[in-house]
Give the backbone structure.
Amino acid sequence: MTVLLVEKSGGIATVTLNRPESLNALNAELRLAIGRAFRELAADADVRVAILTGAGRAFSAGIDLKELSSGPLESSGAADYEMLAALRDFSAPIIGAINGHAITGGFELALACDLLIASANAVFADTHARVGIVPGWGLSQKLPRLIGIGRAKEISFTGNFVGAEQAERWGLVNRVVPAEELLPTCRRLAEDMLSCDAPSLLRYKQMIDRGYAGTFADGMVLEQRLSREHLSEVTPDAVAARRAGIQDRGRRQQR
């Protein structure tokens, strides 16, 4: 069975973790497949938004502990690096469609997405400390920045589960929707992103991600530099054409 499914349609790539019998546990094969898939999608000019989700009742239960306990812990480094680097280098938006459990490594994989939409069935947990390991895919740095240091410590120091509604209240996910509405909601968001100017959207993601990783002052300098670079490539005619489209969309949304 293929451990990862990739479907492309109208500029949107839907990437599905496909080990449902193992709750999409991230064994080395799956981690390498994720890395390869996002490298290939990055090279496809037609793909402008990606949706990442899981098959079955889990997004991902995390690293495959059975595999992890059968050999040296360092042996998985190549698969880890390729997956994380491919997700980091993917310049288009990634929408995480969290359909079920996102546990530990699965939680970290979710945090590699640009925004998260959760099914009402979604559950998050960080069990690193319970397993006896520490994170290496960014959770210790991303989670406090996303929801605040106190809430992040509560999640990570207890290993307790966080349900979808609490995750929304804490700002971990953008919204919670019924299970049957999860992928349709994500696709509608992706289509909204497709309606934006493609070069501007890519540069905007770059601005936010690079700026968020530094200080506010550094981020302001970065924004000004990237803004100047971008404006030097924009023509008045292009702005006029986009303006007409924005006005038409505004009128339709207000009806």
Q: What stands out?
A: The longest helix spans residues 236-253. DSSP finds twelve helices and ten strands in the chain. The chain has two domains: 4-194, 198-253.
